[in-house]
C-alpha cells in the first residue's frame, strides 16, 4: 500500500512534540518513519510552525531549546514534500482565513488527508474530496482501514 499523503496542522505537530505517546505523536512518528505516511507542507505552514514554537504559553510544555527546535525544523523539511501554493488563490472556503494555506497545500500536494485539531477545519469535513480528520481519527486510519470513521 502506498504511503498516505498528509498535511499536518501546526497544532498537531506541537501536540505531538509535547505528548509523543498521544495520537498526534503516533501520527508524527509514522511520518518520520516514512513507511505509512508522507508529509506534505509549504512555506506558509512551515512559517506558522516556526511562529508557534515561540508562543510564550507553550514554553512550559514544549521542552525544547532553540537548537532542538531548529533541528526539528530541519528534520521536518527533510522528510516532507514542500510545495509551492502560489497558484492557489484564497477560495474563502474556510471560516478562518488563516487556515486557507492548509487547504491550498492539501490541494496542491494531492494529499489524502488534512490532520487537524482546529474546529474550523474539522467542521468542513472535506475539501475537494480531501478528508479533514482529527489526529485520533488519523491514528485509527493508520492502524487499520484507510477509511475514516463517519
Would you spell out the secondary-structure blueprint of this structure?
Elements: E1 4-8, H1 10-18, H2 23-33, E2 37-41, H3 43-53, H4 66-79, E3 80-82, H5 100-108, E4 113-115, H6 119-122, E5 126-127, E6 130-133, H7 135-143
Parallel strand pairs: 1-2, 1-4, 2-3, 4-6
Antiparallel strand pairs: 5-6
Keywords:
Rossmann fold, 150 residues, globular, 6-stranded mixed sheet
Q: What is the assigned CATH homologous superfamily?
A: 5'-nuclease
User: Which parts are unreliable, with pLDDT below 50 for 5 consecutive residues or more?
Assistant: none
Number of domains: 1
What is the CA–CA distance across the termini? 22 Å
Structural class: alpha/beta
Could you tell me the CATH topology label: Rossmann fold
Average pLDDT rating: 90
What general outline do the C-alpha atoms trace?
globular
Order of helices and strands: EHHEHHEHEHEEH
Known CATH architecture = 3-Layer(aba) Sandwich
Given this structure, which CATH class is correct?
Alpha Beta
Helix content: 40-55%
The helix tally amounts to 7
Number of strands: 6
User: Major sheet, described briefly?
Assistant: 6 strands, mixed
Order the strands across the largest sheet as they lie in space: 3-2-1-4-6-5
Rounded to the nearest angstrom, the radius of gyration is 14 Å
Percent of residues in beta strands: 5-15%
Amino acid at each position: 500500500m502506498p504511503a498516505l499523503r498528509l498535511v499536518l496542522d501546526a497544532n498537531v505537530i506541537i501536540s505531538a512534540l509535547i505528548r509523543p505517546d498521544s495520537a498526534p505523536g503516533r501520527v508524527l512518528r509514522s511520518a518520520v518513519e516514512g513507511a505509512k505516511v508522507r508529509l506534505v507542507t509549504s512555506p506558509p505552514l512551515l512559517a506558522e510552525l516556526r511562529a508557534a514554537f515561540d508562543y510564550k504559553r507553550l514554553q512550559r510544555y514544549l521542552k525544547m531549546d532553540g537548537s532542538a527546535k531548529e533541528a526539528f525544523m530541519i528534520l521536518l523539511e527533510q522528510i516532507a514534500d514542500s510545495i509551492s501554493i502560489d497558484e492557489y488563490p484564497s477560495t474563502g472556503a474556510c471560516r478562518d482565513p488563516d487556515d486557507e494555506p492548509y487547504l491550498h497545500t492539501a490541494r496542491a500536494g494531492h494529499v489524502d488527508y488534512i490532520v487537524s485539531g482546529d474546529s474550523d477545519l474539522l467542521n468542513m469535513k472535506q475539501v475537494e474530496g480531501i478528508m479533514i480528520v482529527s489526529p485520533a481519527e488519523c491514528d485509527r486510519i493508520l492502524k487499520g482501514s484507510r477509511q475514516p470513521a463517519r
